[in-house]
Write a structure and sequence with these properties.
The chain is built from 3 helices and 16 strands. The chain has a 6-stranded antiparallel beta barrel with strand order 9-12-13-16-15-14. Strands 2-3-4-7-6-5 form a 6-stranded antiparallel beta barrel. It has a single domain, classed as Trypsin-like serine proteases (Thrombin, subunit H, Beta Barrel), CATH 2.40.10. The chain has about 290 residues and is mainly beta. The longest helix is centred in the first third of the chain and has 7 residues. InterPro entries: Peptidase_S1, Peptidase_S1_PA, Peptidase_S1_PA_chymotrypsin, Peptidase_S1A, Trypsin_dom. This is Peptidase S1 domain-containing protein.
Length: about 290
């Protein structure tokens, strides 16, 4: 979630009748005013329960290698993620048969596996533009059965993240704790603050910046949701794309001891893609 890799963010909304509602102590601990501390997904919380039933684990097989990403369930048969997750070494999109999605558990090894029948891109991406949109919708071969405890869709928002606003992010990527890179079978939850563009983050097009002290994402978080809670509903406003992290260095210490990790990431706004989302899902997912 933060190792000079690029991840991406996007946000949108779904029908109220099938969306996930907030009821989690894990997310509570991120928002508790008395305990709040900005955290990265890497140094974020490993939930004690499967508190985010819309989070999906995505594996793309390339020969003997497996590329891992994160996604979000937006309708019974559709999962939203970053387009770059599907790119092969030749910078071409892989075939649907190489993609597997697991949902229903906070642990990627225990989620139920779904196969992908196809995927929908924006018109610009389909036309082969070099400046393609880093967003894609995976269509599953069968519908996910929602029980609203282990599986549910996240709502999508037409709203745009505001500078200074705190968003929650989730990803199946590497977790960084005190400069140690740790693999976790569970997704990790953290907070990021929406920032202005800077020398550390230069958003393009429909992107925005987020991060700060002990905030950020890392490898394999790509495609994960950036969301907030509105009227007790989880509402996705962005998607993890990429970023980088760095430490301050204490030059008075031997070997220039590093301290204070900062992360800055690029995220994709969901709002500009609302029409594309509704069209690509035959109206089963749409922004509110």
């Amino acid at each position: 979630m933060m190792h000079n890799f690029h991840l991406f963010l996007a946000a949108a909304t779904c029908a109220i009748s099938v969306c996930a509602y907030y009821d989690s102590e894990s997310v509570d601990s991120l928002y508790n005013d008395n305990e709040f501390k900005p955290r990265m997904v890497l140094e974020g919380i490993i939930p004690t329960e499967h508190s985010l039933p819309f989070v999906a684990y995505i594996a793309v097989t390339e020969g003997k290698l497996v590329k891992e990403c994160t996604g979000s369930i937006i309708a019974p048969r559709y999962v939203l993620t970053a387009f770059h997750c599907l790119l092969t070494n030749k910078n071409k999109a892989t075939v649907p048969q190489a993609i597997a999605v697991r949902v229903g558990s906070q642990y990627k090894s225990k989620g139920r596996k779904y196969l992908v029948s196809g995927f929908g891109t924006t018109d610009k991406t389909a036309q082969g533009s070099r400046n393609w949109d880093d967003i894609v919708i995976l269509e599953l071969t069968q519908e996910i059965l929602f029980d609203f405890l282990t599986t549910a869709a996240i709502s999508l928002s037409r709203g745009t993240p505001r500078i200074g606003e705190t968003l929650t992010i989730a990803g199946h990527g590497t977790r960084i704790v005190q400069r140690r890179f740790l693999k976790s079978d569970s997704y990790v939850i953290g907070n990021v603050t929406v920032r202005k563009s800077s020398r550390y983050c230069k958003p393009k097009g429909n992107e925005f910046c987020a991060g700060g002290l002990e905030q950020g994402t890392a490898m394999d978080d790509s495609g994960g949701p950036a969301f907030k809670i509105i009227n007790r509903k989880y509402v996705q406003v962005g998607m993890i794309l990429g970023g980088e992290h760095f430490h301050k260095v204490d030059k008075s210490k031997r070997d220039f001891e590093p301290f204070d990790m900062y992360g800055y990431g690029n995220y994709l706004k969901i709002a500009p893609y609302c029409e594309y989302i509704q069209r690509s899902t035959a109206g089963t997912a749409y922004c509110q």
